[in-house]
Amino acid sequence: MPDSLPADSVGIVTPQTYHFDEPIDLACGQTLPSYDLVVETYGQLNADASNAVLICHALSGHHHAAGYHSKEDRKPGWWDSCIGPGKPIDTNRFFVVALNNLGGCHGSTGPNSLNPATGKQYGPDFPVVTVSDWVKSQALLADRLGIDTWAAVVGGSLGGMQALQWSLDYPDRLKHAVVIASTPRLTAQNIAFNEVARQSITTDREFHGGRYYDHNVVPRRGLMLARMVGHITYLSDASMGEKFGRELRNQAYTFGYDAEFQVESYLRYQGERFSETFDANTYLLMTRALDYFDPAYDHGGDLSKALAEASCEFLVVSFSTDWRFAPERSEELVNAMIGARRKVSYAEIDAPWGHDAFLIPTPRYTDVFHAYMDRIAREVGA
């Protein structure tokens, strides 16, 4: 962390754990008797609780969206570029709530938590959760925080799916949904990428059917490979070419199979680092939630019929080189919103960074995001 905090930082923040003793029924038919959600908040809730914004995280995200946990932190939260004083999600105007989703591995109840029925970690016995389950738990969190209606629910990628689901499951509890670099459902290719990642994990000899905790090991190699596959899909060919090209680590071929190219070294580093911080069972759970997401499923495949249940306004943002969740998927969503006579604003941002572009504060993206959130702030008098 720099010697002094940036003026637009939310500063040093402390996560809070909210415990829920009430059982929560899940879409898979199982029930969690109790659970914890780890939360960070930034800014102040106004007198009528009308300025609250919920941040929904993507696959490998968590509650630490902005600021620093200590003076020793080298990096701020994962969306610090967009959350803070004067930023698009302005904490001088909004009360911002970010959480680690149910099933996560950063403090909220998930596969690495203790199962009260056995006294051991849940492991593979943790129920499969869906985007709707996350939204249900987030609504219960909102009740606990005294928030009846969100000024906006905001998310990128898997987080954007949650924002969209909020508009359908609790249409009277949000004014705006901001859906960034997302999709109304995965393509077959996306499901295929997720399956390769899951197979990488489940075939690791240290996986032990998901009970690796009992063996005091981690399926590190499987997690590493899963992250490498995922990371490739988050970047564009152009961004990888610009960053690495065909650059060799040692300026000459070694005629072996070690990491000779810089891109190989980069992917191995990303995979190794991820395998040290993320839980394998959670990765399986998160990717399956991605696969299952399809709001049109219960409406005969008609997305416009599904969106007829929404009453909020929408901002949809896509990125030109995002081939994981391509602009065509956002356009499909926007067209369905128009068909359902919903109010929607749409922007396709020309950016070279692929799917990861939603995390990078490019000027046009920031301008669009800032303008929309400024309108929301004015609506609630913030």
Automatic annotation (TrEMBL):
UniProt subcellular location: Cytoplasm
* Positions with a binding annotation for substrate: R227, D356
* Protein's recorded name: Homoserine O-succinyltransferase
Question: Has the keyword Acyltransferase been applied to this entry?
Answer: yes
Residues at the catalytic site? S157 (nucleophile), D322, H355
Enzymatic reactions: L-homoserine + succinyl-CoA = O-succinyl-L-homoserine + CoA
HAMAP family for this protein: MetX_acyltransf
Gene3D superfamilies xrefs: 1.10.1740.110, alpha/beta hydrolase
Higher taxonomy: Bacteria, Pseudomonadati, Pseudomonadota, Gammaproteobacteria, Pseudomonadales
EC numbers listed for it are 2.3.1.46
- What's one Pfam family here? Abhydrolase_1
Pathway(s) the chain acts in: Amino-acid biosynthesis; L-methionine biosynthesis via de novo pathway; O-succinyl-L-homoserine from L-homoserine: step 1/1
Keywords assigned by UniProt? Acyltransferase, Amino-acid biosynthesis, Cytoplasm, Methionine biosynthesis, Transferase
Q: How does it assemble?
A: Homodimer.
The UniProt similarity line reads: Belongs to the AB hydrolase superfamily. MetX family.
Name the gene behind this protein.
metXS
Which PANTHER family does its entry note? HOMOSERINE O-ACETYLTRANSFERASE
Organism of origin is Marinobacter nitratireducens
Keyword Hydrolase listed: no
The free-text function statement in the UniProt record for this protein reads:
Transfers a succinyl group from succinyl-CoA to L-homoserine, forming succinyl-L-homoserine.
